[in-house]
Specification:
Order of helices and strands: HHEEEHEHHEEEEEEEEEEHHEEEEEEHE
Distance between the termini: 84 Å
Oligomer: single chain
Number of strands: 21
Low-confidence stretches: 1-19, 21-103, 527-553
Helix content: 10-25%
Mean pLDDT: 82
Amino acid sequence: MKINFGTGRKPSSNTDQISQLRRKLLMGCAWLPAAPLLAMLGGCNEGDTPDAGTSTFRSGPEVPPANQSLNIGLPPYKTTDILPPPPNQKTDAQTTVEVTHIPEQPPAPSKPKKVGIYSLQYNSFTQVSTRKTVKAGTHRSISVIAPDQNGTTKLITYESIEDYLKRALDNRLALVYRAMVTAFEKHSPKEFDVSFFTVPEFFWNVPFGDFWTEAELQASTDLYLETVTRNARTLISKFPASQYGHIVLLPGTVAALEPSFNVLKPDGTTGTIYNAANHLVCTHNLPVNDKNYPRPAYMIWPKRVVSSIDYIDEANGGSCKRSIADLDKNPINPGVNNVLKECILNTKNGLTVRIEYVSSSVAQSFDSQGKLLSNSFQNDIIDGLPFGIDICLDYSEASVQNDEFRIAQLDEREFKLDFLIAAGMFLNVKNYANTPYIQYAIRNEGYSGTTGQTEVWKLTYDENKKTMSSKNATPLDAKSAFDVEKGFIPVDQTDAFVETPGIPKILDKMNPGNVRIWSLDIDAQDATGAADALVASNPPATMTKKSEIQIIK
């Protein structure tokens, strides 16, 4: 035991010095519990006023028994956020202490053999419209002639699109957080070597019928993309690996529209063509400061092609014309024919936009400061468990199993888990005819019933027949893969849910949600042989800037 106790800084007065009497007491009473010992150090003379800058100590709550650990929030997680404990662990009162050594995060798993899949079932395609009406003249509000709830056409004033989206995105942040907490209480991610949590396509969107002008639509683009990125990072920060095990979050997509270029119409006028920015922001709680295995803090995976149901007023019968004109090939993916789609976003006032079928959005990886690291998706952040993602229609038109330009945007082309994040797409075993290395297909579908649909397929490759077969995996706590009663964990949307610092309340009506969980046994051996031929030729996507004006053919 050190004899020279100090406060860790240059003393500003004699009150910071250890007296000989205290020194003897400390040497003689080193066996005492920590709280009484620290109380001696701090002093407890009533009425004494120490000089500015001197050290004081107020004894905290009773120190936990030796078999309990003291939970100290450490960077990169906020110390002000009190996180819910893992199941069966008591919550200890927290106190602030000086830390001289910051322990490293738990080492990331290598070649994991047991993987958890948590999937939030949610109807993300038919979202609930909750844009509020306000008094005329309210700041940034918009007044339109439209039918009210009774069908009577009248002047209606709505809150600003910015206020609406901020509240709606807060609601969705809160719902995913509640889903994660509730599911983790049922089955802790520490039951697995690593876990994935998935959410369906369009989860972060409000109904497109809630937009009244192109100006509102364009104002939403940055707000959508920036807020969803921030929310995804906030969510994962609430679940540090030290308490919850290692988690990769695939929190669904947000679909925005960006002005892409102008076109010259046959009548001589010009119009705006939009690029579809339908993105998934992947975050995780794996170490990002591992010198031997560097990782980005978060990654963007975009959808490549636009479905005819992606940008419509679904609740009121909106639609898209599949093709109204041919466009030049998009250099991002010249293997897919590019056409112009015309979509009615709002049937109440006829708001119509024209969208490129092939999106120009590219995969990206970022560090913890938001600095772009690469125009690729680092899908091998878990050693020995690379994964791929398809967003809905990409699965059939530009998949990471078969499309060379999509495959080129992955760091690791031979991956073991394939995630289909969708709203209107089914799994198809034919997709895996040339991918013997993929062991599981995981689907999260937002366009099926009131709470969507989730499923997991175990894929088995027959080396002799050169064929792939599939079998539905059974969720935990369910009798079978097709059990419609057991294995569902409902998400509480009421005010009874315990609030957490940094997580907003759910202020508007939302669709109900459930979580289902699977435990996957992974073959840690690397696939070889047949897969090599598939990825031997893999040209990079060409980043050629498109012209500002295109002629409609």
